[in-house]
Structures
1.
Amino acid sequence: MHNKTIAEISAGLKAGKFSSEELTQDLLARIDRIDGKLNSFVTVTAEQAQAAARAADERIKANKATPLTGVPIAHKDIFCTEGVKTSCGSKMLDNFIAPYNATVVERMHAAGAVMLGKTNMDEFAMGSSNETSFYGAVKNPWDLERVPGGSSGGSAAAIAARLVPGATGTDTGGSIRQPAALCGVTGLKPTYGRVSRYGMIAFASSLDQGGPFARTAEDCALLLNAMSGFDGRDSTSIDKPVPDYTATLKDSIAGLKIGLPKEYFSEGLDAGMAQAVEQAIDVYKSMGCEIKEISLPNTHLSVPAYYVVAPAECSSNLSRFDGVRYGYRCENPSDLTDLYERSRGEGFGSEVKRRIMIGTYALSAGYYDAYYLKAQQIRRLISDDFTQAFADVDVIMGPTSPTTAFKLGEKTDDPVSMYLSDIYTIAANLAGLPGMSIPAGFSNGLPVGLQLIGNYFDEGGLLAAAHQYQQQTDWHTHTPQGFA
Ligand code: GLN
């Protein structure tokens, strides 16, 4: 049962082949049996899940089901879940029971999806390997000595290991696409503003965007249908109708113009990866797509600009964790300053502290113009590169990540090399564009991700291109050994 996709589950539930309760129990037992090896869940909400599954079965019987009714899913532990611990991977929020649901969570509940639990993540979504989590690293199911990517590594690993068919993630600089690539699953970062950020714990508000993970593009379309849409409680949410993303999956892609940025195929790219990506492009050629080399000349500036903008915004967003209102508070503070200093000093991990310090520095008087303003100007140049590119092409493709999954511990002492893991993903966040990663083969036995970047609000186009590739290839069906 655990090998079914969301579309298959949805059809099976509707046809009465199995119940949501049976399926939920099966997956909960599987999580119980297997997740000790992976550490992909921070919290498993077994009782709540069983109750939700029973309610879903009733709803299906009453003919009031949506395509997600009774479908088990998991939420990244960055989304507030009413009455359930919402840790954001941090000691700071280890004792935090959210008093309300994030809009994404609320919409998934309303659709009848059954939440099995909350997935592990890098602390406050800062990281590319899941190693900054207070709850310990997540292991990659393809090789337990390797990282699953980050920051949404728990969601990606849980799907790859068939513990759950779909999950949510967030992507500030690549945190949906890069773990999807490293774990061999499908992930989509929507256009900035497409999915509400209300109740999604803020890291860098001008970049953060929630989105779905699943095994297939079709399943991502089903999840995105439920997640998207205007929300008056998020001032950056965009009031634009949500199309049915499943309706356009089969739209012809013959004649689709695909741009390959030459900067995405430069030295840093691993040879096995490059080969897999080129083969994927050949599949698109055989489907009648036109391939064109393009240039995104400011690509090399995206990581430096991001590491000014994101820390600056995080230093501001994380100032609310002060030991006073909620979250971690130090023992026996001697005065107010001691309370602030020790609560933050003890509650945050070292990567989060590094970012807060960089951000505070970049925003301080005298440095603002030199760093923050400069980074914002570069952001505009990067965004203009894409505008120009999309005048000639419909979709941009390339590798999602420069390497396959690296070893646990390999980059923890070298933050810059860790930051470079997102060299191909960050630009889409700076520009606010939608992006996807889909499984496109293997290099030395480890999954390779193909990245698709689309124009604003062209999630439908990306999903169609991804879906049709998945009709021609079977990379997305491969299961890591020991998790079949
Ligand atoms: N790896 C990047 C970072 O550490 C991106 C993280 C994310 O997208 N949340 O900031």
2.
Amino acid sequence: MEHRVFDDPQVVQQKMIAVRKQGKLIGVVPTMGALHEGHLSLVQQAKRDADFVVVTIFVNPTQFAPHEDFDKYPRTLKQDLEQLRELEVDLIFTPANESMYPPGYDTFVEVVESAKRFEGVSRPAHYRGVATVVLKLLNITMADMAFFGQKDYQQCCVIKKMTADLNLPVRITVCPTVREPDGLAMSSRNRYLSPEERTQALVLSRSLTLAQELVDDGMTDTDRICRMMREKIETSPLAQIDYIAIADPVTLEELATISARPQSQTTGNSTRAVVLLAVRFGATRLIDNTLLF
Ligand code: PAF
């Protein structure tokens, strides 16, 4: 195994205690591997902000329901390590399932309200698994800061809520979604799409752009905006909409109207709402979102 790659949680924690003693700020990028430009942008941000950068690669079984794609989730460790070597990441943590969840494992973290809606409806236990593994990864790596992509907007909200509610001394940084030149949000699951599905999936980013245009034109009724987005997405015969929702960017409570003056402190004064969607193309379920200003 390469000298910077470790799979034993205890070994990593001991190393990280030593890194901390040197006074270095530790930045962690948790991933499930199958790395793409979106992940690499998180690593680059971590390198700018932290003194010591850790990337974790772990396809976390507890965030997949039995019928979901855990077994077929892309695992591309060799290529992932090559990409991370080029970025000169300080440490890579690639634990096995048994070391993260040994026999008798019995503790889970549940963020209640913000995990219930949207993704939580289709994937009821998903964020319980995410919150649990992220807390474990933060503890093992002794992170001062952790980096997540806005592409998984609700996940970012759940993780921020968990760190606030549990008083974790970790700063959560949300980095912008990285898109293909044609607008498709980068995702490890894009590789499941057939060429036809891939083409039709462009309606997602186009419908998000439409939402901002409608808001720019003065539309504030979220039902109307969602309806027009739905019509745009339905121009793709392969698209099966799971949800389209417009919500408060911090609490994720659904909004009936988009107000002129946002209350949000976290996402800055000009953010008025977030629009989130999940749409299936064949067997592949894609999510995307954008902040509305
Ligand atoms: O976003 C992901 O890749 C995963 O949900 C995460 C945060 C690494 C937890 O397994």
